[in-house]
């Protein structure tokens, strides 16, 4: 087997953009999970804070 890299090389800007996108996705998931947990507890404020992805 030839010794080839498994991924294409990316610029620092591309890596930063990908990391930021992943972070925003994780943040949205955490908020959605917190809202779901609040709804199961019957908290009235469960839907007040929403994160909108751009």
SS strand fraction: under 5%
Question: What does the main sheet amount to?
Answer: none
Oligomer classification: single chain
Order of helical and strand elements: H
What's this, in brief?
With 54 residues, the chain is mostly helical. It has one helix at 12-41.
Structure report:
- With 54 residues, this protein is mainly alpha-helical.
- 56% of the residues lie in helices and 0% in strands.
- The longest helix has 30 residues, at 12-41.
- The model has no long low-confidence stretch (mean pLDDT 76).
Features of the shown structure:
54 residues, mainly alpha, rod-shaped, 56% helix
How are the SSEs placed, and which strands pair?
Layout: H1 12-41
């Amino acid at each position: 087997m030839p010794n080839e890299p498994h991924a294409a090389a990316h610029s620092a800007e591309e890596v930063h953009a990908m990391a930021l996108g992943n972070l925003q996705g994780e943040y949205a998931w955490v908020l959605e999970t917190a809202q779901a947990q609040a709804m199961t507890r019957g908290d009235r404020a469960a839907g007040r804070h929403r994160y909108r992805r751009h």
